[in-house]
Amino acid sequence: MSVRSTVRVVVLLCGVLLGCDDMGSVEDGRVASARVLSDSTSDAVTVPEPTRALREITTVPSAPCFALDSLALAPLVFADMSADDETGDIGGLEIRFLRGPRGGLGAMLREASGGLPAPQPVDSLAYDGARDSLTIWWSELENGYVYRLKPACDYLMGVGTFWITSTNPTGHRVNIVLPRTLTPMPDRR
User: Three-class SS of residue 105?
Assistant: First the structure.
């Protein structure tokens, strides 16, 4: 199956599982855009101020890989990262779940564009058991990012809203699939 076909399948799965009403378009094997139905009257997302302290939640997804006892042994890592063949620059997204010092579920994120920074705690993490959905808020400089993801042991799938600012409160939405990885890329700057 080609990358383009795989992306189309992922986009269709997002539409079926998460209620996307605009399945987006595929350009060069990447999802170029997607819009998600919202229960609220506004698509604007409020992003909390960055704190960079590890936030922990006590209600965790029911998928067995999210069990806090197992996360005490090793983090659960989902990533879509790759190195450019010519320059060696790294690009992509990684989300790590771990058991925090207070015994709850915490999340760390790193977004690579060129170098590979160390994972940083997310600004906020929430789990909605009724929808089996994780919501992660992350901010960097003037931009906010929100990820709404369905947790599973093999992958995280959902929608990311990028570049949320005071002048663009709805940001840009894209479908996201992050496969689980047992060998995350090492930290490097």
Answer: strand
What residue spans define the domains of the chain? Answer: 1-37, 48-179
What is the pLDDT of the chain when averaged over all its residues?
Answer: 76
Tell me how far apart the alpha carbons of residues 13 and 16 are, in angstroms, rounded to a whole number: 5
Rounded CA gap, 25 and 21, in Å? 12
How many residues are recorded in the chain? 189
Give the C-alpha separation, 117 to 188, whole Å: 6
Q: Are 137 and 162 in contact (CB under 8 A)?
A: no
Residue 63's Cβ-count burial label (10 Å; 0-12, 13-18, 19+) is middle
Contact at 8 Å (CB) between 168 and 159? no
At 114-135, the pLDDT tens digits run 877 888 899 999 999 999 999 9
- Tokens found for residue 183: 């060998």
Determine the pLDDT at residue 151: 96
Query: How confident is the model over 131-141, as pLDDT tens digits?
Result: 999 999 988 87
Q: How do residues 54-72 score in pLDDT, each as one tens digit?
A: 889 999 999 999 999 999 9
- Please name every residue paired with 184 in a beta bridge, in sequence order, or none if there are none: none
Rounded to whole angstroms, the Cα distance separating 17 from 1 reads 22
Q: Which amino acid is at 78?
A: F
Tell me what pLDDT residue 187 has.
67
